[in-house]
Specification:
single chain; 187 residues; alpha+beta; Membrane-bound Lytic Murein Transglycosylase D, Chain A; two-stranded antiparallel sheet
């Protein structure tokens, strides 16, 4: 009895095991399948990203149209109103009669949930002094804001009127809301 050595690749020639060429062919096929699977996953990820981007664009366009409707519903007159919305930024353009209307449009947009920035490209036909802006904090009332701005709490109706139609009740302001504080001679 003894141990005999043979050439391993010879086995396939008589139907036992795979030849070197057959193994290489199987490895190439497996590699091609793996490459196809990777390519398919990449294509699926790309399609998902494109679908998500398309949905985001559609949602942003819907938000922009909603903002335009909101401005119109408030009765703020702006010729050629165009609002674009992207990632929390509302870009607004058009032409208004005066500075007060421009500021009202900007504040109306900026005080909408989801809007963090207003990019203003509004043209004003009759320029005038810009109003101060005030961010409402805890404890603020229009009377307190008027006292701080004008030295007279009883001037709160000036602030209320300056922020119509966004404000409908002088007692209904909220933390984080931005209000116009016009100079008394420009109110």
């Amino acid at each position: 009895m003894g141990v005999f050595d043979f050439v391993r690749e010879a086995g396939a020639k008589v139907g036992i095991g795979d030849s070197k060429e057959e193994r290489q062919a199987k490895e190439a096929a497996a590699s091609a399948e793996q490459a196809a699977a990777v390519a398919k996953k990449r294509a699926e990820r790309k399609a998902k990203k494109e679908t998500a981007a398309r949905r985001e664009r559609m949602a942003e366009n819907k938000k922009a149209r909603g903002l335009e409707k909101y401005i119109a519903d408030l009765g703020l007159e702006i010729d050629g109103l165009d609002v674009r919305f992207d990632d929390g930024t509302a870009e607004v353009s058009g032409t208004v009669a005066d500075q007060a209307t421009r500021e009202r449009v900007i504040l109306a947009l900026g005080n909408v949930e989801g809007v963090g920035t207003v990019d203003d490209e509004i043209n004003v036909k009759a320029d005038s002094e810009e109003s101060e802006m005030h961010v409402v904090v805890s404890g603020d009332t229009l009377s307190k804001i008027a006292r701080d701005a004008y030295g007279d709490a009883s001037k709160y109706p000036v602030i209320f009127e300056a922020n119509k139609p966004m404000l409908t009740d002088p007692d209904k302001i909220y933390i984080g809301q931005v209000l116009r504080i016009p100079a008394l001679d420009n109110a």
